[in-house]
Structure formats: structure tokens, C-alpha cells
Amino acid sequence: MAVLSVSRRTVTRSVRALGVVSASAALALGAAGNAAACNINEFSAEAKCDGDKGVITVTDVDPAGVPATVTVFLQNNGADIEKVGEQVVKGSKEGTTITFEEDWKPNAEYRIHVTAKPYVDEDIKPNLVTPSTPCKEDEESPSPEPTPSEETSAPAEESEEPAPAPSESTSESAPPADTSDNAPSPAGESNLAETGANSNTGVIAGVAAALVAIGGGAVFFGMRRRGANSQR
Fold first, then answer.
1. Which residues of 205-226 are buried (b: 16+ CB within 10 A; e: fewer)?
2. Is the Cβ–Cβ distance between 121 and 40 less than 8 Å?
3. What HEC string does 98-146 produce?
4. Do residues 114 and 38 touch, judged by C-beta distance below 8 A?
5. Strand, coil or helix: what is 160?
6. Digit-coded pLDDT (tens) for 27-52
7. For 130, what's the count of Cα atoms within 13 Å in the CB-facing half-sphere?
8. pLDDT per residue as tens digits for the range 171-217
């Protein structure tokens, strides 16, 4: 009887100890399974350049491949101002990467949220800050073409030499005017030039002929009177 009693107690204790060990192992495996299923630390984000355009990539290295929804928000002063996009990713041991086309600006801040229920529902910390150098450098802007006012003012600046005085240009370009032709002539000369003789020429000629005749007659009678007186 004593031997049987000791054996039963030993078996009971062994069973209890095995149960405790099994429970502990189950809890440890469950915790390990949850940790291996999905974790926020398995997600990473990066701002890159695809040629001249910017992109944001998110990589999931969850070996269990639990589907997770990734949402990207553009932030300003700690507040979301724009939703860039949302995609679902299934991680892998090698890593699965998804890409968001976002032509980001230098030093911009993005909040990236991951949801993989019931395991993950939080942001990737810290927030993603883009590089200070843009993907595409600003091209040198061509020099502006001169405005019409500048074009018209350029010749004026070149011709600053004083222009010749009007009198000098007139004397050099045109011969001196013939004042003899343009000066007004006396009235008599004008009438003679136009008609060839004065309108009173006939009267004057008649008077002159009469005076000549009278003078001739006076001389003739005077000579006769002298002759008669001499004969006496």
C-alpha cells in the first residue's frame, strides 16, 4: 500500500509539472507566433528619385506575408494636408516593396500609416522627411528678350551726337535762292514785262511828237523873222 501511494504521488506531480511546462511553451509559441505574424518594425519607408520625378517606397519584410494596408499622407506643421495614396502589401522574408508616385518637394514631411488587423494599426516612426535636394534641378531660365521700349530706346542712346542745325542742313542740301527772280518788281516794269509797253506810251509819244512839231515850227518862224529883219 505504501509503495502504491508513493507512485501515485510521483505520477501526479510529474503530470502537473508537464502541464505547467506545456502551458508555458504554448504561451511562448503563441507570443512568438503573434510577433512573427506582423510587426510595425518590419515596415520601412524611403523617398527616392525615379529619373526626374520623386517617388515614395514602402518595404514590408514580414515573413508571414500578412496583408497590410499602407496609407501615405503629406503633412504640414504636424497636420495631414493631403492623402497621397493607399496600397495593400504582402510582406516576404526577402522584402516586398510598393511605390507611391509623389513628386515630393525638398524637406517635405510624410506620415505613413500601416494597418494589418489584428496585429498592426499605427504609423511608421519617425515620419518620413524627404532629401534637401530635388530630383530635377531647375534649369537656367533664358535671359528675357528686350521689350519694345528697350529696343526703341537703344538707337536713341547711340545717336547722342547733336544733330546739325537747320540752317546748316538747308545751306548744304539746297542751293541759295535766286532773289532776283522772286523779288517783286516795280509796277511799271511788271507792266512792261507782261505787255511789252506801258499802257500810256501812245499818249506820251503823241505829246512828244506835238512838242517836236511845235518846236520845229517855232524855229522855222524864228529864222524867217531874222531873215526879214536883215533885209531891211
1. eeeeeeeeeeeeeeeeeeeeee
2. no
3. EEEECCCCCCCEEEEEEEECCCEEEECCCCEECCCCCCCCCCCCCCCCC
4. no
5. coil
6. 444 444 444 568 999 999 999 999 99
7. 24
8. 455 555 554 455 555 544 444 444 444 556 677 777 778 887 887 77
